[in-house]
Design a protein that fits this description.
The chain folds into two domains: 49 residues, no CATH class; 74 residues. It is elongated. It is α+β, with helices and mostly antiparallel strands. Helices cover 78% and strands 17% of the residues. The N and C termini lie far apart (146 Å).
Length: 161
């Protein structure tokens, strides 16, 4: 980490002040630990490093390739983003025109559907009116026939007398 600048002990605790160079300056970092816990931690970390040394080396060997792949993906994404931006900018007026046409067609469809509904209502009303007229005419014909039969019956009765 750096050179130990100062160390103070207090009841099995230690405060370490490290001097770390950053640029042209030295920055003091404070580390307040229990000596006993620190030793356990260091031994556990050392054991973990020993147990996983092969995997860590394999990972470190793959790291440059991974970084290269990430850089390639980033460059490809940048190119794709630029291409998409150009395409959007180029097609934006056309899209606005298409949207205006779609709105116009939608308005015409609304108007046409209203006209069709009105026409259907008129035809339905006309058919209903015609059916009622036929029904009335049938009643009238029936009434005339009934009157004619009554007249014939009256004439028959008069002739029989």
């Amino acid at each position: 980490m750096g050179d130990v600048y100062d160390c103070h002990y207090n009841n099995s605790r230690a405060i370490y002040i490290y001097s770390v160079p950053i640029g042209n300056r030295f920055v003091g970092l404070f580390d307040y630990t229990h000596k006993k816990n620190a030793n356990k931690l260091v031994s556990k970390v050392g054991k973990m490093v020993e147990e996983n040394e092969k995997e860590m080396e394999a990972t470190l060997k793959q790291l440059p390739e991974i970084v290269t792949n990430v850089n390639n993906i980033t460059e490809d994404t940048t190119h794709i983003t630029k291409d998409v931006r150009k395409l959007v900018e180029k097609s934006s007026p056309e899209v606005a025109g298409i949207m205006a046409n779609v709105n116009s067609v939608t308005e015409r469809l609304d108007s046409t559907s209203e006209d069709i509904c009105d026409s259907i209502d008129m035809v339905t009303d006309s058919i209903c009116d015609a059916a009622f007229a036929i029904e009335d005419n049938m009643r009238n014909i029936s009434d005339y026939v009934q009157l004619a039969l009554e007249i014939i019956d009256i004439i028959k009765m008069l002739l029989k007398r």
